[in-house]
Specification:
The protein is of the alpha+beta class. It folds into 2 domains: 38 residues; 81 residues, no CATH class. Helix content is 44%, strand content 17%. The strands form 3 sheets. A 3-stranded antiparallel β-sheet has the order 5-7-6. A two-stranded antiparallel ribbon has the order 1-2. Strands 3-4 form a two-stranded antiparallel sheet. A hairpin with a 2-residue loop joins strand 3 and strand 4.
């Protein structure tokens, strides 16, 4: 059993359309990169209000200036102690960290170090976290 000439021709046309779309997207990306260049120097600064939109709110993401924040300078053991002093072993919703930069950065660090467990509940959109003791 083989492929009909009609199906073969249709497949070739589809492939040509895909290649044309890819070429157009590549041109758009290159144009965007060119727009970000000033002379021969590429712009490397990022907006300070970089955020991620979630269904349950807007969250700021880590930026370069956050590397100089006290939550990034503190040892993980101190962050764990502070977490325990504030929430003990309770589950804490991610929305608690939206406004406070210290706890937002602490959440990122403790999650990255596998010191927190995270669960997505069926009853709410934001995940909850608890310290692993």
């Amino acid at each position: 059993m083989g492929i009909s000439d009609e199906d073969y021709g249709k497949a070739i046309k589809d492939l040509q359309e895909i290649k044309a779309l890819s070429a157009k997207q590549t041109e758009q990306v290159l144009a965007t990169l060119d727009a970000l260049k000033v002379g021969s120097t590429t712009i490397t600064s990022y907006p300070t209000n970089t955020a991620v939109q979630q269904p349950y709110g807007t969250f700021k993401v880590l930026a370069e200036q956050d590397l100089h924040h006290e939550a990034m300078k503190a040892p993980l053991s101190a962050l764990i102690d502070m977490w325990l002093a504030r929430w003990q072993g309770e589950w804490v919703s991610e929305t608690n960290f939206q406004e406070d930069d210290f706890w937002r950065i602490t959440l990122d660090r403790l999650t990255g170090a596998n010191k927190l467990e995270k669960h997505n509940l069926a009853t709410q959109m934001s995940p909850v976290y608890r310290i692993i003791e």
